[in-house]
Amino acid sequence: MTADELLRELEEELLPKIYGFCFGKLSDPEEARDLAQDICLEIVAAIRRGQRIENLRAFTWAVSNHRFCAWLRRRRRNSTVWLSDAMAMVLPADEDVEEQVILRERSGVLARELALLTRQTREAAVLHYFDGLSCREIAGRLGRSEGTVKWMLHEARDELGKGMKSMREFGEKSYHPGRLTLSCQGMPGADGEPMRCAERRSAQNILLAAYDEPKTVEELCTELGIAAPYIEDEVDYLVANELLREVSREKFATDFVILPSDAEGPDLHRLLFPAYYDALSAFLGENRDALEGKPCNLSGFSWERLLWVYLHFFVQSATEQFKFGHGIAIPYAEFPDRPNGGKWLAHGFDNSAARQREAADTEVFDGPVHKSAESEVEGFFHAWSGADSGPFFRLPDAVFDLGAALIEGRKDAEELDGEDRYLLSIALENGLFEKMPDGIRPTYFHTNAEGGRILGGLAEAFYHRVEKMLAAGWNAILSAYGKSIPKRLRDQMGNKLANELNALVPCSLGEALRRGEIKPPEGETKRWISLWSVGA
């Protein structure tokens, strides 16, 4: 390297490490700055006089230790030498300061470098140099050949030597860890996978660190500032639960889409409205007789109350048909079967405990949810419902089965047996039905199989009216997020990004509110205002 190149590397890459070295050694900031200046001056002088420097990092490390010890020698006229808390010692002036400091420094660096070796290499080195085992004994302990053990010890010495000569610096996640929020599409595993797998900050930051580019265990150790034995356990766990995968020899990559916190999604409201809502409103008006009468409206709702369901149903049905019809998303049937009984695709969001989506002045929303893979019960839980979707998932499927039988007239609430009476009490307690003077009435939308076929046919017709608008929205979503997703995850990308089209539901509800076609819900039953189910 030329002198100019060495000076540029010193300025751009090594100056922060030199200052970090000095501030880590000395408790007085002024003295730390003076020491850093001395180190830099000596390195610059060596470069300018043409001294041969093959490895500037190793040279900087040697000069830094030399100047630090020289500084200590100058201070020996004082009674004591106070070092930083990180050095954790006070040296009497009459002792060999340089020898003690170098010993302490080299011991600490050796421990750090040993902790960063890969598992087999580290185990061989510890067994040989610390426990005194021969190569033959180590081979028996590790189940390897004696020749392999000799090679591993050679690798260990080589790696330790390189590390001891470098000014290794831990990554940003060692002092400023990120936070990953994990969710999934499909059915979680028996122990709540994948969400439960990333509850620990160490697991979250491994997944974040290995997202853009695959990482080795050593690289993850350096990035997180954690020794290899602990990183290896986390990596093994994440690989076993299929959130991380080995993409090449000893390199691991996160195996699901994570959206960055600074990515700005498209404003679908500004892009598609009011044209999208005009098409939706006209379509509902044209088909009002069928939608308001039986067999679609078995719950006996008013048109305004029905709109809370139909605005959700037709918008969501169109987006689902668009993403699967155009091959954008992987259908549930093709989701991988997971090790612990789940069938899911994971999705992540970087550095945000709860993502909020906005469209113009429309309220935030949670999004569409399904009761189960087998159940034709789903809902859209948004700000207007004033409640979370938790009770929806906690309710047994049998409650909705009974509700369907009651609404369709296949069972009479006055003639229920013991088990059905218990299920009805759960439905009443959770507001799915309410007591009236003439009996009970449902608070959520339900239709039978015939009504479901009518709604399906109408949804198909509506989709063809808005397909081009959905394509425009999807192209805007790809433009906003596509570049932030690694190529290896492009097959999963649509399942994550197509969720952005769900913003059309609250946008449509907000437009209907502004036009006075619906009113804000009131009362205890508003939780289920956009819930709907279809009979078998």
Number of helices: 20
Structural class: alpha+beta
The spatial strand order of the largest sheet comes to: 8-9-13-12
Could you say how many structural domains there are in total? 4
Output mean pLDDT.
84
Give me the Rg, rounded: 32 Å
- Total number of strands: 13
Characterise the protein shown here:
It is built from 20 helices and 13 strands. The longest helix is centred in the last third of the chain and has 33 residues, at 449-481. The chain has four domains: 3-104, no CATH class; 116-164, Arc Repressor Mutant, subunit A; 172-255, Orthogonal Bundle (Arc Repressor Mutant, subunit A), CATH 1.10.10; 268-409 and 443-534, no CATH class. It is an alpha+beta fold and 536 residues long.
What are the defining features of this structure?
Arc Repressor Mutant, subunit A, 4 domains, alpha+beta, 51% helix, 536 residues, single chain, elongated
Question: Topology of this structure?
Answer:
Layout: H1 3-25, H2 29-48, H3 56-74, E1 80-82, E2 90-92, H4 97-115, H5 119-130, H6 135-142, H7 146-164, E3 180-187, H8 201-209, H9 217-224, H10 228-240, E4 244-248, E5 251-254, E6 257-259, H11 268-272, H12 275-286, H13 288-292, H14 303-325, E7 343-350, E8 365-370, E9 377-382, H15 390-394, H16 397-407, H17 418-429, E10 433-436, E11 439-442, E12 445-447, H18 449-481, H19 490-497, H20 504-514, E13 532-534
Parallel strand pairs: 6-7, 12-13
Antiparallel strand pairs: 1-2, 3-7, 4-5, 8-9, 9-13, 10-11
Helix pairs in contact: 1-2, 1-3, 2-3, 3-4, 4-7, 5-7, 6-7, 9-10, 12-18, 14-18, 14-20, 16-17
